[in-house]
Amino acid sequence: MTQPPAITHPRDPLHGITLETIVTSLVARHGWAELGTRVPIRCFRHHPTIKSSLTFLRKTPWARKRVEQMFVAELL
């Protein structure tokens, strides 16, 4: 028997990418100071860590959306 082909999501550039991967990638490219300038949230400006950022972004939809949009814009 053959298995059906894996379903891909060509219209969703974030499919399969974790929030941790997104934040880590943006920090590596821009640093915390630049992220705090682009997305003015406390977890990027004062004693930033990946853990605190992930906690905040998971609880705050508007901030998560801005971070994801920033990541997608850099993919294109």
Q: Which CATH class?
A: Mainly Alpha
The assigned structural class equals mainly alpha
**What is the arithmetic mean of pLDDT?**
89
Question: Level of helix content?
Answer: 55-70%
Task: Give a count of the beta strands, DSSP E runs of length 2 or more.
Answer: 0
Coarse shape: globular
Beta-strand share of residues: under 5%
Subunit organisation of the chains: single chain
Q: What's the order of the H and E elements? A: HHHH
Distance between the termini: 39 Å
CA-atom Rg in angstroms:
15 Å
Q: Biggest sheet: strands, sense, closure?
A: none
Give the helix tally.
4
How many separate domains make up the residues?
1
Low-pLDDT ranges: none
Based on the structure given, which CATH architecture is correct? Orthogonal Bundle
Under CATH, the homologous superfamily reads SAP domain
CATH overall fold name? Transcription Termination Factor Rho, Rna-binding Domain, Chain A, Domain 1
Protein model, in words:
By secondary structure, this protein is mostly helical. It has one domain: SAP domain (Transcription Termination Factor Rho, Rna-binding Domain, Chain A, Domain 1), CATH 1.10.720. 64% of the residues lie in helices and 0% in strands. It has four helices and no strands. α3 crosses α4. The radius of gyration is 15 Å and the shape is globular. The model has no long low-confidence stretch (mean pLDDT 89).
Question: How is the topology of this model organized?
Answer:
Layout: H1 19-38, H2 42-45, H3 50-59, H4 61-75
